[in-house]
Amino acid sequence: MSTTANDTSRARGKAPAGERIADWADGRLGIYSLAKANMRKIFPDHWSFMLGEVCMYSFIIIILTGVYLTLFFHPSMNEVVYHGSYVPLQGQMMSEAFNSTLHISFDVRGGLLVRQIHHWAALIFLAGMFVHMMRVFFTGAFRKPREINWLFGFLLFVLGMFTGFTGYSLPDDLLSGTGVRFTEGAILSMPIVGTYISYFLFGGQFPGHDFVARFYSIHILLLPGIMLGLMVAHLILVFYHKHTQFAGPGKTNNNVVGMPLLPVYMAKAGGFFFLVFGVIAAIAAVAQINPIWAIGPYRVDQVSTGAQPDWYMGFAEGLIRFMPGWEINFWGHTLVLGVFIPLVLFGVVLGAMAAYPFIESWITGDKSEHHILDRPRNAPTRTGLGVAWVTMYMITLVGGGNDLWATHFHLSINAVTWFVRIFFFVGPVIAFIATKRICLGLQRRDRDKVLHGRETGIIKRLPHGEFIEVHEPLSQEQLHTLTTHTQYAPAEIGPAVDENGVERKVTASEKLRAKLSNAYYGEDNQIPKPTSEEYKEITSGHGHH
Amino acid sequence: MSSQDIPEENLPAEQDHAHGAVAVADEENPFADPGLPPHEHRIQDIDERAARRSERMVALLFTISMLATVGFIVSYVTIPHDKNIFVFPIGHISALNFALGLTLGVALFCIGAGAVHWARTLMSDVEVADDRHAIAASPEVRAKVHADFRQGAKESALGRRKLIRNTMFGALALVPLSGVMLLRDLGPLPGTSLRHTLWAKGKRLVNMNTNQPLRPEDIAVGSLTFAKPDGLEETDEEFQNELAKAALMIVRLQPDNIKDKRELDWSHEGVVAFSKICTHVGCPISLYEQQTHHVLCPCHQSTFDLSDGARVIFGPAGHALPQLRIGVDSEGYLQALGDFEEPVGPAFWERG
Amino acid sequence: MKKLSVRRRHPLAAVVVLLLALAATGGLYAAFAPAGKAQADAGSQSLTIKEGKKLFEVGCASCHGTGGQGSSDGPSLVGVGAAAVDFQVGTGRMPAATSQGAQVPRKKTVYTQTQIDQLAAYIASLGAGPVVPTKQQYGPDGADIAKGGELFRTNCAQCHNFTGKGGALTKGKFAPTLEGVDPKHIYEAMQTGPQNMPSFPDTTLSSQNKKDIIAYLHAVDSSETTNPGGLELGGLGPVSEGLFAWIFGLGALIAVAVWVAARTAKAKKS
């Protein structure tokens, strides 16, 4: 490297400017070593691998538009009288935060567009993270060595929820104010410390005069700062681990097959940023979001029906809506279970997702690296658990919108709530069983395909009158792809007597692990993939059946 | 990241036998990896005219983007910010928002579409395989690092000089307390402020709508009225904080419809005043059904029966809405006969 | 109800309606003539009541009793006033279907406005109650839209949503949407409190307040309302926004991603 640099510096004046700048930078930053490792980095092509990019780009869009919005937004709860150009609010008392948001929406040219891009991008950012996380989950991409990156991604999702929530609260409109009031109620429900935390957060009684300013610094500085750091770390790890890939001919656990970063992915990924931005800008042009002028300024004694948070908090909303009103009073204290249990469940449901990779790796005991993705059907128990989790999440979302379900489907709101109460428990179980059945069925089909070939749809009549469907043997590529996944044997509890004949105590955790392992990989919980022997026996015995 | 020296236990039943590409399927392994399929040419790779078409397409997309940006600037300058237009099927919308959004969207989208089309049709599409390397370090490196660390730790004498170690840990553990202390002034201590509202004996009930004190005869059976304490004005510094606890919901029931004795005692000729703040998490609850006397919270659907002491009959609220004892003063106006007997709004630990 | 609909299909029904309409036009003219109500001919007034009584006996008495005193199937109408009749019949809620769900929905009006006026006059004659508001009361002149908005959020939005899109009540009941509802009917609903809606009598929500609310609703919830940002998405808030973001936002982006990641078509080997 250094010789090249010396060569070019000698040939000064002749080398193109770009090269000279690169040399200059290399002398100070060592960019050539970096580029050597990364410039022709290989990325596999698959649409689902771009979901993470959707998130990253919408995050960048949110930051760009957010910075613009800070130029006009006043994070203050001082009450002012509105004199702007939106007639139905003129003369009304409102906080400066609300006033300046109206100003952005009606009096700053393009302000409304930027606001709408910001908000739409936020919804899409979180939806993207959710789908991205599901992709990683169902393909088993969270396995070693990517558990830490799974946690980073999980943290990004959770922090994204709270960043979104604090942002949603900033305009101090009637809808978000109702959400903040709910937050206060939820904090108050925490045993022992709740009242104090609430008073510290709101600077005294609700709503106080401080929360907009405090949420503002949390929303624009604290949380996005952490998220930016996590996102960079997430990306570095993606680069470092190299991307996972689906099984296929030539794709092994020791390589990654795809196109180089320069030029193909530079163009594709770079172009994708503009595509994402373009789509979101177009959405912001045609679809209105959070019309705070129609919602009105926040006042503690006003409310509207259909008061919901943005979708990513809808799951928390659902938990709180279907909870029965339990409250325990004792020794002069109140334990507000009706609010506190949902608060805990919120953490537990999300935490289960975060912990899953570690649980699975404990059950399998597998310490090797996995770079080839699982097809969801080849991990039936994991897929079943994932679908059960998603079902639970979706049912709580239904609960979060129970009033709209009631009005739009002409149902009783009480009936919808009861449905959610029951299906929060029953739904995941049904989903788990059904999913696992389907996965096993698909595994059987794969097995049949490998052993008997593909059904061609061509019906043949044999000389003695029998009709058969012609099965076409699979290509070598397909055979390989369908049989390359790993299958675990259920873990067994080791011998209860060690080699010296001393009795060993079998721990409860060992027993649990054996049980779980059996549930994952035991008989009937996965279909053994065809072995070479089976294949040879069938292909040699069958002729062309 | 994780050490590799732990012997692998419980390995997959059948190790991934296809590791390391095997070129052909042999007798032993019919499922062997045939390796990467040969590269197939795209039409643009073999037909220069097709490649030209792609080139023109990419250039066209970039040109559209430039035009759209010009359109954005023109829209920004020429369209008044308060101009509304009707666009089917969207409805009456702001012309400026629509024009800026669409031109910006097109300008950005076309850059992206151009770049991707370029990559897809004109850049090489030969698939390349890149080797992966084990992430965990080799045993030699691992041993070296451990040795270095032990050396460093030994040279620091941290393990030997316990006094240094303990005091250092002590100092580091204590110093964040300063930061925690600084948070103290984020807000006052709750004290008993959650237990008291502005209501007091003799305070008149003022109609939220007209800002006039209410008389019992103003309130018809089946009607719904909201009230605040006399003297609390919208312009007051503490208006929101006080109203958040003091907001009232007033309805009139036929006295013989009131099932709860205390409710009847605290009413005035069937006029009952309940806190408007839901006991669940504090939404202003007021979806009053005048025939059933139920009041529903729009946030989480807690339902209270106003004819039965505002008892909870559905939903996540844990206790009844507090009732305000009311009467009539010498001039015939409704007045409070004291503060609420219990804290209003959401429950909290110290509520009891 | 049934009887009425049978009669409506009678060949002479059109003639009857036409005659009634003619009579009503005359009556209306009399009502709106500069002379005003006070000087309205007592004779035509009693005629209207008489006609109303006839209509009532045919269409309403089966539930509300022959004298409007109510029965097990319908409440007493003594003292509900003309405004309640004008609202209930004018919005098609009355006459109600025999088997109704949780609440009686708005539907196509069965009677002409003249017939409604006659019915209203008859009911009003049974006992004093809120009268049908005049255009002066619910019209836009002199209304303070912003004050109306504040009043709407205090008194109405909890059931009818920020901009009057409606919402759920307990056990299948609901607050209906206010879009496209005649201002007169909105006024009457506030005055009389139909079904489970509480009333907002003039003593607590003044006539001017009601006018303000109606003007506000016209500004934010009518076909002329501007939604500067684009599609209103039902005006339902974050739920519909979230659905839109998932289906059209993320959906479009995934479609784009599929295109970006897809293999370019290969030249055919032939």
TrEMBL record, chain A:
<keyword id="KW-0349">Heme</keyword>
<dbReference type="InterPro" id="IPR016174">
    <property type="entry name" value="Di-haem_cyt_TM"/>
</dbReference>
<protein>
    <recommendedName>
        <fullName>Cytochrome bc1 complex cytochrome b subunit</fullName>
        <ecNumber>7.1.1.8</ecNumber>
    </recommendedName>
</protein>
<feature type="transmembrane region" description="Helical">
    <location>
        <begin position="150"/>
        <end position="170"/>
    </location>
</feature>
<keyword id="KW-0479">Metal-binding</keyword>
<keyword id="KW-1003">Cell membrane</keyword>
<feature type="transmembrane region" description="Helical">
    <location>
        <begin position="330"/>
        <end position="359"/>
    </location>
</feature>
<keyword id="KW-0249">Electron transport</keyword>
<feature type="region of interest" description="Disordered">
    <location>
        <begin position="522"/>
        <end position="545"/>
    </location>
</feature>
<feature type="transmembrane region" description="Helical">
    <location>
        <begin position="415"/>
        <end position="435"/>
    </location>
</feature>
<keyword id="KW-0679">Respiratory chain</keyword>
<dbReference type="InterPro" id="IPR027387">
    <property type="entry name" value="Cytb/b6-like_sf"/>
</dbReference>
<feature type="transmembrane region" description="Helical">
    <location>
        <begin position="215"/>
        <end position="240"/>
    </location>
</feature>
<feature type="transmembrane region" description="Helical">
    <location>
        <begin position="182"/>
        <end position="203"/>
    </location>
</feature>
<dbReference type="GO" id="GO:0008121">
    <property type="term" value="F:quinol-cytochrome-c reductase activity"/>
</dbReference>
From TrEMBL, chain B:
<dbReference type="InterPro" id="IPR014349">
    <property type="entry name" value="Rieske_Fe-S_prot"/>
</dbReference>
<keyword id="KW-0001">2Fe-2S</keyword>
<dbReference type="GO" id="GO:0051537">
    <property type="term" value="F:2 iron, 2 sulfur cluster binding"/>
</dbReference>
<keyword id="KW-0472">Membrane</keyword>
<keyword id="KW-0679">Respiratory chain</keyword>
<comment type="subunit">
    <text>The cytochrome bc1 complex is composed of a cytochrome b (QcrB), the Rieske iron-sulfur protein (QcrA) and a diheme cytochrome c (QcrC) subunit.</text>
</comment>
<dbReference type="GO" id="GO:0016705">
    <property type="term" value="F:oxidoreductase activity, acting on paired donors, with incorporation or reduction of molecular oxygen"/>
</dbReference>
<dbReference type="Pfam" id="PF19297">
    <property type="entry name" value="QcrA_N"/>
</dbReference>
<keyword id="KW-0813">Transport</keyword>
<dbReference type="GO" id="GO:0004497">
    <property type="term" value="F:monooxygenase activity"/>
</dbReference>
<keyword id="KW-0479">Metal-binding</keyword>
<dbReference type="InterPro" id="IPR017941">
    <property type="entry name" value="Rieske_2Fe-2S"/>
</dbReference>
<keyword id="KW-0408">Iron</keyword>
<keyword id="KW-0812">Transmembrane</keyword>
<keyword id="KW-1015">Disulfide bond</keyword>
UniProtKB/TrEMBL annotation, chain C:
<feature type="binding site" description="axial binding residue">
    <location>
        <position position="160"/>
    </location>
    <ligand>
        <name>heme c 2</name>
    </ligand>
</feature>
<keyword id="KW-0812">Transmembrane</keyword>
<protein>
    <recommendedName>
        <fullName>Cytochrome bc1 complex cytochrome c subunit</fullName>
        <ecNumber>7.1.1.8</ecNumber>
    </recommendedName>
</protein>
<keyword id="KW-1278">Translocase</keyword>
<keyword id="KW-0249">Electron transport</keyword>
<feature type="binding site" description="covalent">
    <location>
        <position position="60"/>
    </location>
    <ligand>
        <name>heme c 1</name>
    </ligand>
</feature>
<feature type="binding site" description="covalent">
    <location>
        <position position="156"/>
    </location>
    <ligand>
        <name>heme c 2</name>
    </ligand>
</feature>
<keyword id="KW-1133">Transmembrane helix</keyword>
<feature type="binding site" description="axial binding residue">
    <location>
        <position position="64"/>
    </location>
    <ligand>
        <name>heme c 1</name>
    </ligand>
</feature>
<dbReference type="InterPro" id="IPR009152">
    <property type="entry name" value="bc1_cytC-su"/>
</dbReference>
<keyword id="KW-0456">Lyase</keyword>
<dbReference type="GO" id="GO:0008121">
    <property type="term" value="F:quinol-cytochrome-c reductase activity"/>
</dbReference>
<dbReference type="GO" id="GO:0005506">
    <property type="term" value="F:iron ion binding"/>
</dbReference>
<dbReference type="InterPro" id="IPR050597">
    <property type="entry name" value="Cytochrome_c_Oxidase_Subunit"/>
</dbReference>
<keyword id="KW-0408">Iron</keyword>
